[in-house]
Amino acid sequence: MGKILSVVERAYRATVEEQDDTALWFTWTVKKGGAEMDLLLRGNAVNYCVRGQEVSGLTFGGVPFGGPTVIEHDLESMMKDGIKVYAVKEDLESRGVEPSRLLSGIELLSSRQIAPLFNRFDQIWHW
Fold first, then answer.
1. Contact (Cβ atoms closer than 8 angstroms) between residue 49 and residue 103
2. Is 113 helix (H, G, I), strand (E, B) or coil?
3. How does residue 6 score in pLDDT terms, banded at 50, 70 and 90?
4. DSSP letter string over 57-100?
């Protein structure tokens, strides 16, 4: 299968209905199945890198929806399982995210470093 880079650009997709972001879950599952997987967060998905986000849940019409996913815990577990996580520095800056607020282990890349990163992988999956 070769080395695969999963690029996630859209954030919080299906996190109300499901326990995880679908693209992150799939990336992690494929890694657990033996593939060489890494992850690049860009666009709004760079928000996943921020520590300590409030995820207490939603209430619609007085009915609480329990237990939304805590993406930072998912990312920490993914990194412990050997998935390298990259984030685009300019996307973080444009959203006002300071590097001091990021999870430990996130590797920042400038937008100019994305094409060379792609060259290190056999497949690019974009979500």
1. yes
2. helix
3. very high
4. -EEETTEEE-----HHHHHHHHHHTT--EEEEHHHHHHTT--GG
Per-residue confidence band for 63, with pLDDT thresholds at 50, 70 and 90: confident
pTM recorded for the entire structure: 0.85
Containing structural domain, residue 49: 3-126
Radius of gyration of the chain (CA): 15
CATH of the domain at 60: 3.40.1260.10
| Rounded distance between C-alpha atoms, residue 44 and residue 65, angstroms | 23
What is the tally of structural domains in the chain?
A: 1
DSSP letters spanning 29-59: HHHHTT-EEEEEE-GGGGGGGBTT-----EE
CB 27 within 8 A of CB 78: yes
Specify the pLDDT at position 21. 76
How crowded is the C-beta side of 9, counted as CA atoms within 13 Å?
A: 5
